[in-house]
Amino acid sequence: MRAVECGYTMILYKDIFSFPGHYMSSNYARDRIKELRTEVDHHNHLYFVENSPAISDSEYDLLMRELMTLESEYPGLVTPQSPTQRVGGKLLDGFEEVAHELPMLSLGNAFDGNEIRTWHNRISGILESNDFEMSCELKFDGLAVSLLYENGIFVRGATRGDGATGENVTLNLKTLRSIPLSLRGEFPARLEVRGEVYFPKSEFERFNISREKIGLQSYANPRNTAAGSLRQLDPSVTSKRPLDIFIYSLGWAEGNFRMPDTHLGTLGLLRTLGFKINPHNFLASSLREAIDFYEQWTQGRGNLDYECDGVVIKVDRLDYQQHLGSVGREPRWAVAYKFPAAQATTKLLDIRVNIGRTGTINPYAVLEPVEVGGVTVRQATLHNEDYISSKDLRIGDFVVIERAGEVIPQIVRSNELLRDGSESEFFMPAECPSCGDQTSRNIDEAALYCTNASCPAQLVRLVEHFASKASMDIDGMGGKLGIALINNGLIFDVADIYTLRSEHLLEMDRMAERSTANLLDAIENSKKRPLSRLLTALGIRHVGTEVADSLADRFGDIDNLIAASEEELLAIPAIGPKIVQSVSEYFSSDSNRRVVDKLKQAGVNTKIGDIESINRPIQQIFTGLRFVVTGRLENFSRSDIQDLIKQLGGSVSSSVSSRTNYLVAGEDAGSKLSDAARLGIVILTEDDFNAMVDQRPFYDDDA
Q1: Dist CA 532 CA 472 (whole Å)
Q2: Of these residues, 34, 139, 480, 600, which one is catalytic?
Q3: If DSSP codes are grouped into helix, strand and coil, which group holds residue 229?
Q4: Is residue 276 flagged as an active site residue?
Q5: 319-353: pLDDT as tens digits
Q6: CATH entry, 343-425, from 2.40.10.120, 2.40.30.110, 2.40.50.140, 3.20.20.80
Q7: Which segments of 525-650 are extended strands (E)?
Q8: In the CATH hierarchy, which top-level class contains the domain 456-526?
Q9: How many Å apart are CA 679 and CA 199, to the nearest integer?
Q10: What pTM does this model have?
């Protein structure tokens, strides 16, 4: 028996996977579930809204686990408002329309000082006074939604749509943990609030990196990604996107409840009810103060973790708002004072290309240096041939540069009126600028490729990728050393890494005896990496870590994969025609098969396990379970424990999500540990994991 102290309650349970709910009366279970829901909601609010957690992640984890266990044992006590019900829901056929009881109006825009003064003068004229206060708020660049509460319970969420009618996205909005499922304190019988769903910039960057690692295309900007994420027909997809929300206004309220008489006062009330309100709100007593607030954030918006394209200025008194009314679909009492775009004009000096590890030939712009949003920009991505053509870009053009998401420089357009005839068109190279081989382009792709697997420029990127931690994890290989080894004729493909000797390395700059010995040890240790890591390392187009796991699990041996038909590949659920084509093309190349043969001869592991362990029946005690492994373990390498999980029927993911069943956490576990705790996922120590494995014989004696 193990005792775990959880808040004010001591919970006794037989092992880490079961609570004794069956020993409880239904009345006790009902009371305990209610108590747990209140406590979990409270701590969710502190963490996601107030950014002020009051308990440790492990304590939160225990609360959530107990609640989930009790609800599973007493399913009749589960309600839609339980914190366990935020993720999931059935796949939708489509979104039903929702008519807004009060239209969601659009804001008029002001783009400079004259326009904002014109707006203020108009308001002063109608009110016959310029002595009125204005609330100043940041204008978020996301997706506007309405949230409806009845008797304090969240019952419906909808997109803005055309202002009069939106789409019912209730199930998707429930996955946002900053949206309260039930209100706190005293509240009106019915109320609707409006807010903006957004994708935090930091999370957006991590999200794109994770997609690229598994061979998926990255998204262009946080705003569109937030909108697309919220309009998924499968709520479980939305749940995997780290969306957030700021509530910016009350729509309407019904019932015997005294409401504040100002906008900022109303926001204060909404905060006490449990809504997330942006902290950067300001009450201006004059237009000068409002403009000062605007100018402050014109300079400071780059420090925010969300897209912001202006300041919304509103007459603060609600009776004044009612008096001012609206014109068409725009309220008179509010205006969006838009920030100047983070753009600048400069000259396109040249268009050049670089070669990626999979042979993609990527064009980029060389620019006359220009400051954009406080950053000096000298280069900008041009993506591909179609991008250049669609914008009719020519070398020598004057072009408008924009920092997409206030980070990534890109060319918005060229100024054709400034052309003087000296400009020249750019054509993608027919031959690879590195190796001279012919380039090619697939009919269904925009990218141009070098078809030579031994291309030096391609090889530099491939060696770096091959040696990376997600691949073969050869510490010290890649970067400048990789380039030097290639330039000195010591590496012609990735398999040649395993032919390196100390006498080769000691001749290289900055390679002493100790660093040489460490590198050779790292190379030798990499031979033991699992097959999935090798498949990732080879740099096959569209084959990231998850696809590589699927291929390794299905075929068990790289020779079986090489011999696989397209039909066998397509039978794997996670693999589509594009991946099948890239895998087939890779292994149909004589040079690539020679690389595989050289790797086998060097002693690199090309199988899931030895023949005995592959063929010997193992009891699949982890079937249907998804694990994430993080941190430093004492008795396992990361790859070893992942291989063991797969042998026992489980699956392994690189990131924590609602689909994760267990997180195996070692020392220095980092953010995955806190993510798992907040999602109510069971967290295992290394000893806990061993106990799970030892519960049953490793091999099934009955097989």
Answers
A1: 10
A2: 139
A3: helix
A4: no
A5: 999 999 987 678 999 999 988 767 789 999 999 99
A6: 2.40.50.140
A7: 626-630
A8: mainly alpha
A9: 19
A10: 0.48
